[in-house]
Design brief:
By secondary structure, the chain is an alpha+beta fold. 40% of the residues lie in helices and 20% in strands. It has a single domain, classed as Beta-Lactamase, CATH 3.30.450. A four-stranded antiparallel β-sheet has the order 2-1-4-3. The longest helix is centred in the first third of the chain and has 17 residues. This is Glc operon protein GlcG.
Length: 132
């Protein structure tokens, strides 16, 4: 039987705090979503000034990253590289800003961020994931 780590509310709170601190340090109004390894929501925070759609997009970026076990940017790169058929893949958003959360080399969840430029969303998400 295999064993793996799972995110508790303690880790989720730490991830959100680190991502929020990165966003606020740059004056970025974003939404931050944290999901488990199956893409199920564990937490969502929409900072003041972020458009409501940011909450939805951040969650989808996180879900994509968790299910795909990679940064959501990889899917964006595929589409931009000409593989437009990938746009029809179920449960996948091809937008940068979702990053997996790794513990001992295993994906235990993901962070998704939306609200600013794609690379800035990814910067905030990576700050959150690095909190562990």
């Amino acid at each position: 039987m295999l064993s793996k780590a799972v995110l508790s509310q303690t880790e989720v709170t730490r991830i959100l705090a680190a991502a929020r601190a990165e966003a606020q340090a740059n004056n970025w109004a974003v939404s931050i979503a944290v999901v488990d390894d199956g893409g199920h929501p564990l937490a969502l925070e929409r900072l003041d000034g972020c458009a409501p759609i940011g909450a939805y997009i951040a969650t989808e970026k996180a879900r994509t990253s968790a299910l795909g076990r990679r940064d959501s940017k990889g899917y964006e790169d595929m589409v931009n590289g000409g593989r437009s058929a990938f746009l029809s893949a179920p449960l996948v958003t091809s937008l940068e800003g979702g990053v997996p959360v790794l513990v001992d080399g295993q994906v235990v969840g993901a962070v998704g961020v939306s609200g600013v430029k794609a690379d800035q969303d990814a910067q905030v998400a990576k700050a959150g994931a690095a909190a562990l």
